[in-house]
Amino acid sequence: MYLNRNYADTSSNQSKALRRPARGPARRSTCAMLALCLAMLSSACAQVPPAAEESYKPTPGQVGKDSVWVPSPPAVVEHMLDIAKVTREDFVMDLGSGDGRNVIAAGKRGARAVGVEFNPDLVGLSNRNAARQGVADRASFVQGDMFAADISQATVLALFLLTDNLRRLTPKFLDMKPGSRIVVNYFGIDGWRPDFEEEMKADCEPWCVIKFYIVPAKVAGKWRLADGVLELEQRFQEVFGGYTVNGVKTDITNARMDGERIRFGIGGVQYAGRVLGNRMQGERSGGASGAWTAQR
User: Fold this and answer.
1) Which of 6, 20, 46, 128 is the most buried (most CB within 10 A)?
2) pTM surpassing 0.85?
3) Cβ–Cβ under 8 Å, residues 149 and 95
């Protein structure tokens, strides 16, 4: 509290009265009133949200721990989720989630969504935004390092990160469940060709290139088929190798992964199937038909 200095100068008697300690009932009454005032002031302060938190506004281009914050245009956010086909069955994560727009948009589609953001001010802003937009029960945010985040349960990652950030995260991407989807704005994953790519022309500037990836099953290694050995090398969803029978090796053709689904050709025979850990199974067509299995 602040006192007006004029009150202390009006008269010497008033000044002495102000300095004279109260005695008896008057003193007890004054103490009681002071305690009541302090209690009321404490209660009032507790009900007022911190002005600093409510007024926090991030600035595009502000420097963060591992990158600068630049938000994706709203139209891009929605189209990213369209391309990833996000539904209420999904668990969506955003690493370096900024003001929370990717996660909140996913929550509005019924998905469970979590953002990981190192800046605590942005985390607080994102949680307030989620509450204001009615999705706090589905969209939440935590303060943390995106490189240490557990993404193993996510079915979709919706990201806007620099290429170097994505490169550092790539080993974690490849450990996700096969078939998980990764959709990114503008910057791609180094060495990984997108399964789908689109540049938006309308309602968007300047960050308007969407790239979509499907996490492939890991198939590199030697597989035993009924008549021979299939030896595979892998670069993301692209697969190379050969099939050896009685010492004669035939290169495989048209090989590709789509999540846990695999296809390849050996001679005139086409193989299509699913990868189930260290086992593959499916159907053949072309020069031969019927079921096939392989064990790693």
Assistant:
1) 128
2) no
3) yes
